[in-house]
Amino acid sequence: MERAFSSADRALAKRIEANEAAMALAVAQALQQASPELNAAAEPALGGYALFAGAGSPATHALGIGMDGPASAEDFDRLEQFFRSRGSSSLIDLCPLADPSVTLLIRDRSYRVIEFNNILVRSLDDDEPFMAAPDGVSVEKVPRGREQTWMHIVARGFLEQDVVPAEFMAMMAGLPRMAECSLASWNGEAAAGGALGMRDGVATMFGDATVVSARGHGLQRALIQHRLAHASRAGCDLAVAVVVPGTGSHRNYERAGFQLVYMRVNVEREWK
């Protein structure tokens, strides 16, 4: 049975943000093993985690901050020093239900908005049926030994180009170590990928990307259904996806029963 979620539910937001922070820690630990040259690191920050996965990496940011109460200027200084000491701007993904003190500190330190993300959720039931893949589309869990194929497909889709820089592949190398990855094929050729992280009953869907030439055939929707079915069998009761508003991914997740619970604001402070 579908459940209606409230955008005022702080307990729900805290659960989602805590899961995202735990994912950040897992990414850092995986990258430390897979790509030591990146000097990936993570440390607790204001109730969440700050993650460094290389300067300029989309995974370099602080998540889950301000969900456990007020933030002091001294704690915020430590958060900023984590990034500054590694040659990175200070990047924060801010939940609108975080303690207001965090918003005040961000405002007073001249951060700028760089992106908005919609946090979408849906409930999962043990006996819920899920849609089969459309004709011509097949989905499989990435078998051992094909991790590079998955990373290359996702990178091609994310960058919208066929040539993938080696440094981008290095930034992705930890993902197969900390998540369950799936590949979707169109007429027998791998063309899309997605990942699934499961912790404390929360299934986090991420890493969705389809190569440009294969878009419009339902590959992402098949990947979503495949991962939802797996998460349901594994006992998860909540699925979460983070999407850029108005994108194809946003629409595909809504078609799969996800609903918006809040918008996360990504902010940045560059050092002069």
Shape: globular
Which whole number gives the mean pLDDT? 94
Question: How large is the radius of gyration?
Answer: 18 Å
Number of helices: 8
Number of DSSP strand runs: 11
Q: What portion of residues belong to β-strands? A: 25-35%
Kindly state the percentage of residues in helix. 25-40%
Number of domains: 2
From N to C, what is the helix and strand string?
A: HEEEHEHEEHHHEEEHEHE
**Poorly predicted runs of 5 or more residues:** none
**Biggest sheet overview:** 8 strands, mixed
Cross-sheet strand order for the largest sheet: 4-11-5-10-9-8-7-6
> What structural class results from the helix and strand content?
alpha+beta
Provide a descriptive summary of the structure in words:
There is one protein chain. By secondary structure, the chain is α+β, with helices and mostly antiparallel strands. The chain has two domains: 10-118 and 264-269, no CATH class; 125-236, 3-Layer(aba) Sandwich (Aminopeptidase). It is built from eight helices and eleven strands. It has helices at 10-34, 73-84, 100-108, 147-159, 166-172, 175-178, 219-233, 248-255; strands at 41-45, 48-52, 61-63, 90-94, 112-123, 137-141, 180-186, 189-199, 202-210, 238-243, 259-269. It has an eight-stranded mixed beta sheet with strand order 4-11-5-10-9-8-7-6, sandwiched between helices. A three-stranded antiparallel beta sheet has the order 1-2-3, sandwiched between helices. The longest helix has 25 residues, at 10-34. The relative contact order is 0.18.
